[in-house]
Amino acid sequence: MATQEGIDVYFFMFTGMLVMFLLSAAVVVLFFVYQKKFYNQQVQLKETEADYQRKLTRNNIEKIEEERRRVAKDLHDEVGSIFSTLGMKIIQFEKKHHATSGSIELIKESKLLVDKGIMSVRRISHNMIPNELEMFGIAAAIEELCFQIEGSDDLEVDFDSQGLDKCGNQEIELALYRITQELISNTVKHAAAQHVEIKLLCNNGEIRYDYKDDGIGFDHEQIRRGLGLHNITNRVEMNGGDLSYHTAQKGFGISIHFPVKI
């Protein structure tokens, strides 16, 4: 009888331990399931936030480009037309009135100011929406940009391009043009450089862009905080590209890669 009672006690103890073990195992499994579900939710939330930021950035850049086109058109059509009309009025006045020596000089100065105004309107309008980019593509647009810089700043710019007729993509070309504008502006303003080298190559379904100058260089903190460089990063990422910066004691460089569908 005593033996049977001992067996029952061991049985209940074993059963109780087994139940506790199973309950503990269930709690552990539920904990890991919850942790995995929480982790997946966090990953999904971050992906949703990143996707929202990408859409927001693309929308902002598209609105900026749209506004540039509008302002460039208004400048060319309205302000340019006003300067042209003013120039014709000055010529009519000159023909209808006998000019004295003093008024001749005034008319001459007025004509020069009108011509200068027309040239300024064309230059500003061109910088906003370069005709070369829409008519002849990115290589011609960057060549024209380099020509303008070499003509106005003490900076030598070498530009080399290959194979771009095989990689036509308007959004990437516009991004590369704006990036080149930003980089050259940074070099002129901050780098104290004498030479810039730009290479643009399209081959095997990808576009490679390399820019470097021989200036004083950038530190990594400037790269992180710089609004212009932040815009460059946004333009690259919104077109599915990637980039890397090269900084040293002397010179600054950036390499950009875009995959393209041919």
Automatic annotation (TrEMBL):
Q: What is this protein called?
A: histidine kinase
Record's CDD domains? HATPase_UhpB-NarQ-NarX-like (cd16917)
Q: Report whether Chloroplast shows up as a keyword of the record.
A: no
Q: Which organism is it from?
A: Pedobacter steynii
Its Enzyme Commission number(s) read 2.7.13.3
Q: Which UniProt keywords apply?
A: ATP-binding, Kinase, Membrane, Nucleotide-binding, Phosphoprotein, Transferase, Transmembrane, Transmembrane helix, Two-component regulatory system
Q: Which reaction does it catalyse?
A: ATP + protein L-histidine = ADP + protein N-phospho-L-histidine
Q: Which domain of life is it from?
A: Bacteria
In the UniProt record, which is one GO cellular component term?
Answer: membrane
Q: Which residues form the Histidine kinase domain?
A: 176-262
Enzyme class of the recorded protein, top EC level: transferase
Query: SMART domains attached here?
Result: HATPase_c (SM00387)
Q: List the GO molecular function terms.
A: ATP binding; phosphorelay sensor kinase activity; protein dimerization activity
Where do the TM regions start and end?
12-34
InterPro entries in the cross-refs: HATPase_C_sf, HATPase_dom, His_kinase_dom, Sensor_HK_TwoCompSys, Sig_transdc_His_kin_sub3_dim/P
